[in-house]
Amino acid sequence: MYKTTMKIDGMMCGMCEAHINDAIRKVVPNAQKLKSSHSKGESSFVSETKPDEDMLRKEIEKTGYSVLSVHSETEDKNSGNGQRIKPDYKNWMPKGMVLGMACGAAVFLLLSIVTLLTPISEPVKKIMIPILFVITVIFIFVTIWMFLMYRAFSYDGNRKMSKQIIEGVASCINIPDGGRGLDVGCGSGALTIACAKKNPNSSWTGIDRWGKEYASFNKKLCESNAKAEGVSSVSFMQGNALKLPFENETFDAVTSNYVYHNIPSNNRQAILLETLRTLKKGGTFAIHDIMSKAKYGEMQSFVEKLKSMGYSEVKLVDTTNGMFMSKWESAWMGLSGSAILMGRK
Predict the structure, then answer these.
(1) Could you tell me which residues come within 8 angstroms of residue 284 by beta carbon, excluding any fewer than 6 positions away?
(2) Where are the alpha helices (H) located in the chain, listed in sequence order?
(3) Which of 51, 65, 179, 218 could link 175 by a cystine bridge, Cβ 3.0 to 4.6 Å?
């Protein structure tokens, strides 16, 4: 089921509401829970399939009213009360890793206590207790750090850093109507879906190897999130960023977010070139990652290399100066050097 909400300008009374409802029924005969409110300037209804937004606009505007916006989202058929299916983009710091580290801290703390209370020789205690204490402190420190990371990244928290970054990267992508886009390392599908929502007349492909270290991320999750967001112009597939299964100049836009630094490589600039290989001439790119010298080498030299290859508008934009995060956040979270490589082929 889909719930569609429209903001409409020009409704002044109950008669206007009836006109709007009649226009909606012409386009969506099976519309349920149809209601319009002139005081809110809003109409909403539920339908089995996603309605044609262009047809809705045209039919309503024939009556002299202006459609300001149309938004359709899926609803849970089994909820009984029209509850929206919520997308699950997971957390970049998996909860299982946080809990695993916390369990480790608890185990070593318990071992420290047991060793302290067990009647064993003093020389052994003098060796064992400091070692166990240091290990316990390390586990506790890392657990706290991971928990703070989890809280900052969470889509349900106050900071919502993941959401801010995803939407920020997507805002850098412009793609022509009918164009195709590629998201390398799509994970849970968040960036693929965000790009498709920003460019509604384009189609997007998300590709990922979905390794076992991030077992909760998979193709099924991506497809479920796309459905929850009411986005149908996306597809997902398994593949390798080191050798993408696409011909040269296939896509009108390519993007990626925090992927390549996770790939073991002594030449990540080559991974960037592999992604750009699939980009059409005139296409745009926006690739966000930890592009520090240690991970990528001299990136300013790479920017100049791209320009010499014919790329234009190429720039490396620091995202730790308040764009996505503060310098302090990037430091304690281990994200120093984060930047977007963007431009046009």
Answers:
(1) 172, 173, 174, 175, 252, 253, 342, 343, 344, 345
(2) 14-27, 53-62, 95-117, 122-153, 161-170, 190-198, 219-228, 268-277, 293-296, 299-308, 327-332
(3) 179
With 0-12 / 13-18 / 19 or more C-beta atoms within 10 angstroms meaning exposed / middle / buried, residue 123 is exposed
Q: What is the pLDDT of residues 141-177, one digit of tens each?
A: 999 999 999 999 998 888 999 999 999 999 999 898 9
pLDDT band at 78 (very low <50, low <70, confident <90, very high): very low
What token pair was written down for 321?
């100066």
Continuous segment of H or E residues that includes residue 8 = strand 2-9
Asked if 263 contacts 213 with a C-beta cutoff of 8 angstroms, the reply is no
pTM: 0.74
Spatial separation of the C-alpha atoms in residues 333 and 320, rounded to whole Å: 11
- Is residue 316 helix, strand or coil? strand
Positive or negative, the CA dihedral 61, 67, 70, 75 is negative
Contact predicate 51/27, CB 8 Å: yes
pLDDT tens digit sequence for 229-242: 999 999 999 999 99
